[in-house]
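Quick illustration for those who missed Monday's session on complexes.
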Amino acid sequence: MASNGPNATSVVVRTTLPRLPLPPTSERLAIHTDRLLLRPLTQDDLQAYYALRKQPEFMAESTLGKPDVDISETQAALDDLANPERENFIFGIFVAATGELIGDGGIHTVRFGSMGWPEIGYKFVPAHWGRGYGTESMSAVLKTWWDLPRQEAEVKAHPDTLQTEPEGSTLSRERVVAEIATYNKGSQRVLEKLGFEHFGTWDEPDTQLHRLGQPLEMGHYMLSSPS
Ligand SMILES: CC(C)(COP(=O)(O)OP(=O)(O)OC[C@H]1O[C@@H](n2cnc3c(N)ncnc32)[C@H](O)[C@@H]1OP(=O)(O)O)[C@@H](O)C(=O)NCCC(=O)NCCS
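Prediction with coenzyme A bound:
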């Protein structure tokens, strides 16, 4: 189906979303998978998180696209994650057997994402790429996300996210979306393995400091809630 692209007019739909406020990070249960442990990051993780965030490859696809220059930037990022006013559903991702922090990810935008829907993102240190951790961790996060208590909500949705809506439904089926640079084949593959479908590709102004405002080709993906 043809994409309406970046300038499409949003469509207001009634749907469900996780009830706000989300449980405070201090009350969120850890998520266990076969090989990983996921839990909210705390102040105790500062040094380990800095060791990740100073690696350029870890930060290459983040909003600003640059590593932390010193630990105060990591502290600010940790503070932001714990700030209840900046609702997020982000987890630190640890190897269960060793306790090593290797990545972070989850729903970074809970309300009012650029496509209207919650948005997922994730990143790992290169030493742990290609082991299936991206798929394993985000599959578990999504399962936990869909299990959160719901409330009805209004969403200003990009019309391309509504193309598969059944006729006559009163509440739109909920979505989670992802935006990925088209060169990022590994991340696209993770989304495919999680069941996301591609709904459009178009240029957007880059947010990364070294290419600020230049056109960047982004693929847009969505996952519908389990029926
Ligand atoms: C993208 C990223 C999250 C993938 O994590 P991962 O743990 O390596 O992912 P998985 O092992 O679960 O799956 C990766 C898949 O992509 C494939 N892949 C990796 N690089 C690829 C490439 N250049 N071209 C095609 N496929 C590629 C792998 O073969 C694997 O698919 P398979 O299981 O069918 O073989 C990781 O590389 C990363 O953290 N990169 C930096 C940050 C980033 O890009 N984040 C995503 C933006 S939100």
